[in-house]
Amino acid sequence: MTRFIVQCISPYFNISFNSQNHNFNLSFPLPSHNTNRSYRRLRRSSSVFPILSSSSLSDMDAVRGQGVYPLHRCKTIHLVRHAQGFHNVAGEKDHSAYMSPYLFDAALTPLGWEQVDNLRKYVQSSGLSKQIELVVVSPLLRTMQTAVGVFGGGGYDAGMDIPPLMAENTVDSGRPAISSLNAPPFVAMELCREHLGVHWCDKRRSVTEYKPLFPAIDFSLIESDEDTLWKLDVREANEEVAERGLKFLNWLWTRKETEIAIVTHSGFLLHTLAAFGDDCHPSVKNEIGKAFNNCELRSMVIVDRSMIVPTPSKTDYPGKNPHGADAPSEEAVEKQ
Predict the structure, then answer these.
(1) Closest Cα partner for 216 from 283, 142, 163?
(2) What are phi and psi of 115, to 5 degrees?
(3) Which residue of the set 78, 87, 194, 195 is catalytic?
(4) Is 72 a catalytic residue?
(5) pLDDT in tens, 143-187
(6) Annotated catalytic, 194?
(7) What percent of the chain has pLDDT over 70?
(8) DSSP per residue, 33-45
(9) What is the mean pLDDT of residues 307-312?
(10) Cα atoms in the 13 Å half-sphere on the side-chain side of 228
(11) Alpha-carbon distances, residue 214 vs 63, 95, 156, 202 (angstroms)
């Protein structure tokens, strides 16, 4: 192996690299008269310089893979795929079943409700239920059943003066009514629906039909009572779903809440999240974009790096109270 040395020389210090032992060497030459002041300043602060070595270069590489962002430009989102629906069972046996009108706006199976109960126990025991400020849900039966079952209040008493999140025995589910007491607000949003078109399980009922089933869910953001987005003969392309997903994330930035649960669908999650993670380690990108199981929850952070919405900080403190001299120490060094 050829031995070579790459050397960088400055008036203040020399850096050399030895190719044989892969070491960096840092040395300080005796200062000339012209560099005396700068040399003293450099020597004064040299004790805090990192030693240039292979380990420090690795540290630098690690820093490049990290990010620092203001807290008020971040939101925590808890992504949930709906629990098992009757369409999942039929479609696993025969994919063409998705085209059957019998699966129109498919409800949860009994197994799906068990999955809901188990996820509810988890979010309650982990304390997550107390952190969530808003639940955004796709306006289909299976997603709304999942959302209210996981994040809703307890049992509903007919004497309560607040509307329930779900009425008793909704769509012959055999489930009791679910209270909205001590639950975050629920908002139905069309942007986080599954692929539109062709598959009958992805066609929604009218808002008029949904309101008595889910009285405490806010449907005001849905523009049309009937499902005008679903087409019998045209299936939304994956790229269109991804584009819609990015619009949905941008819409989230218009909300004041910083911790939001989103109950949606596998295809929507898969194609929306595929747009992210290219600047991360492959294992991190895989963690972001892998397919969701029924009733799986994953928590992620989204960051506004483009000033989508000006958001004031709730925690920053400006300091200098009371007012006083506060020249940084580095400026004091420069003046010497």
Answers:
(1) 163
(2) -60, -40
(3) 194
(4) no
(5) 999 999 999 998 877 777 889 999 999 999 999 999 999 999 999
(6) yes
(7) 79
(8) TTTHHHHHHHHHH
(9) 78
(10) 5
(11) 48, 30, 13, 18
CB distance 162 to 180 below 8 Å: yes
Contact 186, 216 (CB under 8 A): yes
- Please say if the pLDDT value at position 309 is more than 90: no
CA atoms within 13 A on the CB side of 171: 21
**CA 215 from chain center: how many Å?**
28
According to DSSP H, which parts of 162-319 are helical?
A: 207-213, 238-252, 266-273, 282-289
Say how many CA atoms lie within 13 Å of 191 toward its Cβ: 16
Secondary structure string (H, E, C) spanning 144-197: HHHHHHHHCCCECCCCCCCCCCECCCHHHCCCCCECCCCCCCEEECHHHCCCCC
Check: CB of residue 147 under 8 Å from CB of residue 189: no
Task: Classify residue 17 as exposed, middle or buried by CB count within 10 Å of its CB (0-12, 13-18, 19+).
Answer: middle
The pLDDT of residue 48 is 46
| pLDDT: which is higher, 81 or 305 | 81
Structure tokens at 279: 């600047």
Q: Which of 82, 195, 199, 265 is catalytic?
A: 82
Distance (Å, whole) CA 77 – CA 233: 34
| pLDDT classification of 63: cutoffs 50, 70, 90 | low
